[in-house]
Write a structure and sequence with these properties.
One of its GO terms (molecular function) is phosphoribosylglycinamide formyltransferase activity. Pathway: Purine metabolism; IMP biosynthesis via de novo pathway; N(2)-formyl-N(1)-(5-phospho-D-ribosyl)glycinamide from N(1)-(5-phospho-D-ribosyl)glycinamide (10-formyl THF route): step 1/1. This protein is an alpha/beta fold. The protein is built from six helices and nine strands, in the order E-H-E-H-E-H-E-H-E-H-E-E-H-E-E. The radius of gyration is 16 Å and the shape is globular. The model has no long low-confidence stretch (mean pLDDT 97). The protein binds 5-O-phosphono-beta-D-ribofuranosylamine (GRF). The site of 5-O-phosphono-beta-D-ribofuranosylamine has 14 residues, from helix 1, strand 5 and helix 6. 5-O-phosphono-beta-D-ribofuranosylamine (GRF) binds next to helix 1, strand 5 and helix 6.
Length: 198
């Protein structure tokens, strides 16, 4: 199966997916990488000779034009699945409509707690003792799609956002690669808010 990975940051989740895809029995390949800015994830694509799409909001008249361009770029790649791995933009209705049910996101908190772009900092500030990571299908909300898998991670008293995020990422990269592997081979059953891999 072909997977397109979308990223905006340091690309640690991307690298975990690439490593899993490189395993001999892997049922999926990362056929292209899409970034919305100049970032380490884009450099990884160049280093690994993987097709790279750069689609920056500022290169388009407005958000709708950007969303349309993003949809068309990814549609041309014809992936079986799209994975947002630290992609820091909200996907628009055009993109979501085109790939509905086939977009997987990883969020560094136990949804529905702490959605949005600061889930790690918000969990730390709240003082929870357990946070974690959630892999879910993307719908039109912000981190609101059906949950596929979660792993809990303890918060330590001396944690900073960075130390906590690193601890989350250490389990997140494994969970995301596991879920993508299972999804591409077994698909997903969605029943309203609930989703499970048969
Ligand atoms: C991950 O924790 C992801 O859940 C969040 O941003 C982080 C991306 O990390 N949205 P990286 O860019 O893959 O290192």
């Amino acid at each position: 199966a072909s997977v397109v990975v979308m990223a905006s940051g340091t690309g640690s989740l991307l690298e975990a997916l690439l490593a899993r895809a490189d395993e001999p029995q892997s049922p999926f390949a990362v056929t292209a990488i899409v970034v919305d800015r100049d970032c380490r994830a884009g450099e990884i694509a160049a280093e690994r000779g993987i097709p790279l799409v750069v689609c920056k909001l500022r290169d388009h008249a407005d958000r709708d034009a950007w969303d349309t361009a993003l949809r068309d770029h990814v549609a041309a790649l014809a992936p079986d699945w799209v994975v947002t791995a630290g992609f820091m933009k909200i996907l628009g209705d055009r993109f979501l409509g085109r790939f509905a049910g086939r977009i997987v996101n990883s969020h560094p908190a136990l949804l529905p707690a702490f959605p949005g772009a600061h889930g790690v900092a918000d969990a730390l500030a709240y003082g929870v003792k357990l946070t974690g990571t959630t892999v879910h299908l993307v719908d039109s909300g912000v981190d609101t799609g059906p949950v596929l898998a979660q792993t809990a991670v303890p918060v330590e008293v001396d944690d900073t956002e960075e130390s906590l995020h690193e601890r989350i990422k250490s389990v997140e990269r494994v969970l995301l690669a596991d879920v993508v592997t299972d999804l591409v081979t077994r698909g997903v059953v969605i029943d309203g808010r609930k989703a499970y891999i048969p």
